[in-house]
Structure formats: C-alpha cells, structure tokens
Amino acid sequence: MTTAQMPDxxxxxxxxxxxxxxxxxxxxxxxxxxxxxxxxxxxxxxLASISKHLAVLAAAGLIRQxxxxxxxxxxxxxxxxxGASVWMQGFGQFDPIDLDDFERxxxxxxxxxxxxxxx
Amino acid sequence: MTTAQMPDxxxxxxxxxxxxxxxxxxxxxxxxxxxxxxxxxxxxxxLASISKHLAVLAAAGLIRQxxxxxxxxxxxxxxxxxGASVWMQGFGQFDPIDLDDFERxxxxxxxxxxxxxxx
DNA sequence: ACATTATTCAACCGTTCGGTTGACCATTGC
DNA sequence: GCAATGGTCAACCGAACGGTTGAATAATGT
Lengths: 119, 119
Fold this sequence. Notes:
The structure is a homodimer. The first copy, chain A, has helices at residues 9-17, 20-31, 36-40, 47-59, 82-89, 99-112; strands at 34-35, 63-68, 71-76. Chain A is mainly alpha-helical. Chain A has one domain (9-112): Arc Repressor Mutant, subunit A.
C-alpha cells in the first residue's frame, strides 16, 4: 500500500507549533540545549506531559533528542522549520526578517505565556 | 475574569495550518477569490465540512469572507500569516524567500494533496 | 408564489489531543 | 547491592477535532 495516509511533514510541523506549551519550549531551547527535566521545570504540568510534548517536537523534526548517560539532551533543530517557513513565505512577501519584532515577541511569550493571573 | 484562557492568535494560525485540506484551500485562494461551493468542488467531502474549514481559516485571520448576494466570497488575507511567519523566522535565518522552491511546493500540494492512489 | 441555489446550523459520531497517574527501565552515587 | 535520579510507557479521562446528515435560512430565477 502506497496510500499509507502518512501525515505530511507540514501537518507534523504546524500541529506541533499549534500548542503554546510547545512553542514556549522551542523558545527556551533557542537560548540553550536542555535536559528534559530542565525543560519541564518552568511549567506546572507533569514531567510526563512535557516528555510527550518533546516527542511531538522531535517527530516534527523541530528538535533533536540525544541520550547521554541518564539525561536526555534536547536541542533545537531550526532547519526543521524551514519547509514550513518556506511554505508560508509563499503567501505574501513579508519583510526579510524583522529580528527586533521577533525579539519582542519572544520576550512576551517567555514572560507570560502560560500562567497569566488576573490582578 | 481576565484569565479567559483565550487562545493565542498563534494557536489559531498554526492549528489552522495544521490541516492539509485547509492548506490546500489557501493554495487555491492564492490563485483567485472563490465562492464557498467553488472551494468545496475539488474535495470529496461535504460542503458543510468545507464551510467549517473556511470558518476556521477566517477565525485565524487567514482569509476573509464577504457575503454578497447569496454567495459568500472567500479571499485570502496574506497579512494574517504575518505574525506566525515572523515568529518562525526567529528560529533560523532562512533565505529571503525562495519563490521557486515555493512554486514547486505549491504545485505538488495542488496536484496530489488529497487523493493519492496506489498504482 | 414556488422551486432552486448557496450556505450555514445543529446534532451526532469516532478519533485525536493534552493531561494525569502509577508502574517501569536505566544510570548514577554510596 | 540498594536507593535515588532521569525519563518513558501504558492506561485512562474529558475536551476538541473533522466528518456526516438533515433541517433551516436567504437570495435568485421563473
């Protein structure tokens, strides 16, 4: 059967990116490689949950996980995003990377992504 | 309650893009504005299904729907993708838009996205 | 007025998703 | 060897998703 109904890589990537927790994880990994537990630390969900999220990101090719000793290192794989990025670029000639814009964006995500509480 | 758990715009955009049918719709709209029925035509799902997909895309700000007479026109809103595109660009300095690459990509998606059958 | 066309609404159904919990390997430290 | 640490696995749960069908709403054509 060649009609394997295998999900497109774009499916994997975009649905991986659709979750705010996973996006936050990626942002964290942008700053440095991390062990699974360290990734999980700032979240108030279970370790297992984060482990699953990381698996999703890995399946989408957005991160790579390398087991060394008893800790599993998670490393961003920016190239994994390339296909999706290219696809999106086709829908409008966006300015060639407004890095400042992104910086602010990231800041926001990192600061109050998950637990924003009412004052 | 200010802690409304309102989904982030990026959630909306990326999860809208996570579905191959919706991506194909966007590709179609890239070529021209279309009525809902015309969008639905090439797919072998129900009209209602496509109508829902279009609602999702509209909610994500990726298309705009304008009712004129009894037909609802669907029009791509490339600017809706901007935020997500900017976000992604932050994860790697991708080349400034390889349009040829994209063209081929699109071709592929349009041709055999949904119904690939075994020979 | 009546039938037709265009689209959405509402209820339902099976599947996937994100989360939890507790058991289960590994690897390290004593 | 034994206990602690790091991570995954498996089973489960409620919510969201993508699809279907049939009724409902609206504008158009005759």
